[in-house]
Amino acid sequence: MACLGFLAAFLTLLHQTGALLKISTSSPQKAFAGSDVFLHCTYSGYGSTADPRFLVIMWFYQVKEIVRYHNNVQISHPRVSFDDQAARSGNASILLSDVKIEDVGIYSCVVIYSIERVESDIIMNVLVSPKIQIPDIIVHGDKEKTVVCSVSDFYPVDITITWLRDGVSLQNSSLGKIQRNINGSYSVDSTVTITPDHERKKQTFSCRVQHESLPVALQEDFQLVYKEKTKMIPVIVVVLLVLTVIGLGIWKLKSRKGGFTVNDIKGPPILIDGEEVILCCTGNQCAEDTRVIWLEKKAWGDPEIIERYGGDPEDTQHQLLNTSYDMDTKHMGSQCWSSDLRFTFHVANHKGVTFICRFISGNETQEKRFQCNEVYAKPKVAPRKPKYDGAGKILYSLIVYDFYPRDIQIHWSFVTGEGEQIISSEEQRVETQGLTFSVCSEARIPGEVFKDPKCKVRVVWEHASMGRPESREMSVRDADFPWHPVMEDIIIPKLEAGKEAALSCKISGYFPDSLSVQWIKKEKRNESEIKLPTGDYKVPDDKSNEETDKTFTQVTRLTFTPHLERDRGAKFICRVTHPTLEEPIEKRTGPLLTDLPSRPVMEDIIIPKLEAGKEAALSCKISGYFPDSLSVQWIKKEKGNESEIKLPDGDYKVSDITSHKQKDNTWTCEARLTFIPHLERDQGAEFICRVTHPTLEEPIEKRTGPLLTAGNCRTQRWSIWGSWPHSSSCCTKPVCPGWRVCTVRCLAQGHLLERLLAGIELMSPQALSMQSSDVASTPPRYSIY
């Protein structure tokens, strides 16, 4: 019973919510780092409160699920909060606390209610305001001064830096290469060259920064500090002497017999995120006690030891810094050593890193360096389901994410039988955690082109990390295309032979409006498909209707007059083709067996000559019915009484019904009522033959009308009294009660007496009595006995 209740609730919900669910979000959204932000997502179309049994809410970040709600809440993001009570009332928003740069990206809100699914994307951007520092503003003598304005810790990357002198822009400034910090923010230096003007030492210079995070420009003002030129010749001489001594020492060291050499580190020319990297470093003329150490130096701080080989046994452990590194050092013979460092490269971990291979042989140390400068991350792609944009176009979108460097090219087109047509697109670019980038590219395709089943939407992306462009093709026949036609079962009305009927089938949820419907018949014991004769079967030209969600619905009908011999046991098929379908889809009726009945037809009741005391039978013929499931009832209504009387079994006999099958597969029978008419009981009564059948909503019947029964002609004795003769005599005359008019003639004491007895119907001798008081003045009175 619980299952039945659940199913009833589901069907009710399905009826109430069909194609009504709507979702609303706000994109893009911005928040300052360190703040809290609501990512708003609301939905409607189900009523005031959603039934939690049918409600599922999911949030995704960069195609990774972070929130799931279905009866309970599951959150996989440490700084995300979700209100399940508000969610049941239509508010599926999430709260993101302590926003960080790593939170930048594409969030998706997905709501599933009953059989409907809606989703929407939100572009999340984080703002970090820049800081300005001008470290050196000292000018020596008349020498030109290059002043640096260091702008740091800003996000996003786009920034404008302007130099001013007394409020007037300087044109000889230059912007250095923008650097990405480990926390995802950016830093950049802008320089300007200033020629000292000793007569105008009070000039005010400014470094002005404009950035998305700043409501007004940030500006640092300063004045140059002038100092006299100092004599540098002695210092230069000393420096040159020191350098000379060092150079001679190095030359002597290399020329010493038995000294060893270290070759440059061999590694891939470019580094691809996620790919394995092997750095190889070799040394020649190495001593037996040679040790090899690998170090990692980030953009800041001192080098850190990764792994070492040689020396104390404890140093041979393969881990000192990170388990992700694997070092293999081998003695190759002839005083040659080789050391490999193997690891998986990640932009977030290794961009800007310098690897150092250090050989220690005897008392000598040599090292080589490998800088991770040419680094790349190949883009990953996540196509989204197409959406209707409300203006006759289909919105296709593609998320390209986790790529580096920033520049990427994305091109959209659609291909039909007429060729390829390039279309414009819109890109929303965001930077994500791990120092990589993401972009959401959208293109709008005219809906009409999808009527061509061969139409394909093509998107091509190019990036420096890829050897050649990559592409993806999408079509209306893809599984994620949301508007494939859905067929309901064929509705079969009550079919009756000879009475026009219509089979109907509803097809809904499809786009574009390009549906083709075919009705097919398979006769009993014949699996071959038959083309329906247009004269006997008609398919009206039913048009599609556009729904509120911009999909289309059509109800197709097959109209015909069922015929038992032609249609009994046949199957009917409704077959649908559409550009979104690889193969047609169809629904079938199954064999029409008992589903093709025929109504019974009654003839008038046959009434024989009825005579009192003599058995007679009323009969009624019923024909043309199917199936053989007929019920007959005989009913009586007495004269002057409209109530129906159940016939006593002893006086009235109803024969069993025996049906006979006809050539057209219908059935025929005869209903009989046998009884012995009785003048007093049956004269003026009406008999009814009533028939019920599965094809009939109400019983049908035939009536006899009031019956007349003739009695047997016999001699009746009449007595005549009267005062005017005082003596009486009798006479006899054969009469037939049942005559409408009867004349009584008798001779009494020579007088012929006549009496017209009118309107005598089924009267026994006791039924007629004409009496009066016994007075002389009254006329004669008569009685029949």
UniProtKB/TrEMBL annotation:
- Cited CDD domains: IgC1 (cd00098)
Gene3D superfamilies in alphabetical order:
Immunoglobulins
Q: Which UniProt keywords apply?
A: Immunoglobulin domain, Membrane, Signal, Transmembrane, Transmembrane helix
What InterPro entries does this protein's entry cite? Answer: Ig-like_dom (IPR007110), Ig-like_dom_sf (IPR036179), Ig-like_fold (IPR013783), Ig/MHC_CS (IPR003006), Ig_C1-set (IPR003597), Ig_sub (IPR003599), Ig_V-set (IPR013106), Immune_Resp_Modulators (IPR050380)
Question: Which positions, given as ranges, span the membrane?
Answer: 232-251
Domain Ig-like residue range list: 34-125, 130-223, 485-586, 591-701
In terms of superkingdom, the source organism counts as: Eukaryota
> Where does the record locate the signal sequence feature?
1-19
What is this protein's name? Ig-like domain-containing protein
Species of origin: Leptobrachium leishanense (Leishan spiny toad)
